Amino acid sequence: MPSVLQPILALPLRGLTWLGSQGTRAVAAVVFIAVAVPPLGALLRPYVTEAIFLLLCISFMRVDLAALYSHLRRPALVAAATAWTTIGVPLIVGLIAHATGLASHSPGLALALMLQGMASPMMASPALAALMGLDATLVLVTLVTSTALVPFTASMFAGLFLDGMLSISPLALGLKLLGILAASLLAATVIRWIFGAKAIQRRKRPIDGFNIIILFVFASAVMGDVASELVSQPVFTIGLALLSFAIYFTLLAITTLLFRRIGYERALALGLMVSQRNLGLMLAATAGALPPTTWLYFAMTQFPIHLAPYMLMPIARRLTARADASSGENKADVHSFASHRRSGGTSIHGPR
User: Fold this and answer.
1) How high does pLDDT run on average in the chain?
2) pTM of this prediction?
3) I need a labelling partner for 122 at 20 to 30 A (CA). Which of 7, 136, 150, 319 fits?
4) Which range of residues forms the domain containing residue 132?
């Protein structure tokens, strides 16, 4: 039986491996295919919660525990990044929405922006950072800590800024988020226990490919109405798309500048994480019971989420090359100094 099944299973495995090797190109293509085939949206929309659950499972399953513990031993940077993404971002968004009167003039858009601000970073952020050659470990650790806090912070900010705008109470929102995260973490732990971390690492490319398929399911479900909305109200739809790009790159730029002292390469990694908000988790927690404007804005956010990593690749390559060159120079300086001391040389200040 195994000999019969092996060639049958080999073909989809090769397909997943090829898809996983496409990296940011495949991630970018997802949104265009989702928009180009609207019937898929109606077909896949009932499975948004399941898609989010699988994405969470895959991300938790691939957590590098050794790297996680290493970063947690130096918690200052992780704590600062976590506080910024879970408290700073939603607080600023909420204050701006209320100061500008957006909550009264366009409650659906205000709700969308607040849910975006309250959301934790996307679980795919470490994988995207790795594809771009950035510090995926720092992103992963901050992602884990902020995701652990989001049921509590989201509930708090929903109570502060979303009075009567949600179909569920802030407490119910927090409990649903906690339940989804706990269940996906438990499932990922069982998978790691059954197959082992080494086997998961060996199958990295096929898992990447499967991850892209699940991303496609989610994107199709969220973006199924984009084509029809673009025809019926083109100005409003394009305006939402431009707003989503503006918010994405504003979060990216502010975060990169805030953390520039740790180096622009690592700061850009954090910026990528903060700008990639896990709106799917909020959709799952609210069971999709959201106004049409909120749904449409969520659909528009998929464009920067999927396209920006591909667009930012040249910048990321320059930053990582500069960081590698700087690291090489430092190593050369240390080696030169050590050789100088071994040869009996003295410093420029003379012998001590």
Assistant:
1) 80
2) 0.77
3) 319
4) 17-342
